[in-house]
Structure formats: structure tokens, C-alpha cells
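User:
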Amino acid sequence: MTGHIKILNDPVELVPLLITFNNADYKKIYELLNKAWLTEEELGTYAGTSMVTECLSILKKGNLIEEQWRMPKPGEKPTKEYRATYSKFRASFQCSMGDIGDLLHIAISNDESLRTIVDSVEQEILGGTTSISDISRKYGVSPTFIKGLAKRIPGLDLKGQGMVLLDRLH
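Assistant: Predicted structure:
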């Protein structure tokens, strides 16, 4: 088990944590990674392969895991292995109740209207609009809401004051 403390200075960083610990399979994967270095294949014995891939994506976006190459046996290919980076948590931020409400909703909701907004945001990015403030203004939501979506959706991420589409997993 690692002894590092995850210090959150931005409420948006809560989203990957809440997603991880609100899903029993993700939580189990995190707990396993908190005990040992494991490959994606090894984690697949505890949960489905697609579940492991999604979970690792969320954990990477939250900077909750570290990775390294496992030295292979002669004649085998190296594989990446993962381990949880943090075993403790501390928050040091202030935000509006509206923003924390949005972030909690984004992290734990199965609301289909979120999917509609995500699809629209992805189209904006494909069309060349990547500014978080421009996208939030267009859809009448806060920049924190847009950042929270980027932390939840595997195909989106933040880069500076903009958003980017990540390579699709499949």
C-alpha cells in the first residue's frame, strides 16, 4: 500500500474519485491496485476486460494510478502494470453549492440528458471549438460543469483552458 496523500485543490478532481467509488467493480479494481502492481490482463480476472479498460481510463484522468513496464520473461513482450498512487485523501478547495451540485450530479447520475450534452460537446470540439468558456456559454452551463463532464467521459479530457478528444478505446 502506498502512503501518498491525494490533495484536491480543484473540485473537478472529485469526479474521478466519485465515479470510482460509486461503482462496485471500479472500487474493487482500485483496492486491488492499492495492494500490488497488476496488469490489465490480471485485473481482467476480477472484472470484465471492458470494465477494466474503462476504470483504468478514469483512474488515469484522475491521476489516481501510476504505470510502469513489467520486465518480460525471455521471448515475451513487455506489458504495462498499474498501481494506485494514493492511500489517503485531503480536500482544500472552495466552490459554490451550484458547482458542487453539478459535479455530484455528473459523477453519480445516469441521467440521459448528460449523454445529449456530451454528444453536443464532442461535436463542438470536432468543429474546432475547444474553449471551455465558449462551450459553457453556448450550452448555458458553468465552466465547472463542462470540466466535470470531461473528467467523467472516457473520450474527453482537459488541456489548459480547452478540451480535447482522446483516442477511442475501441
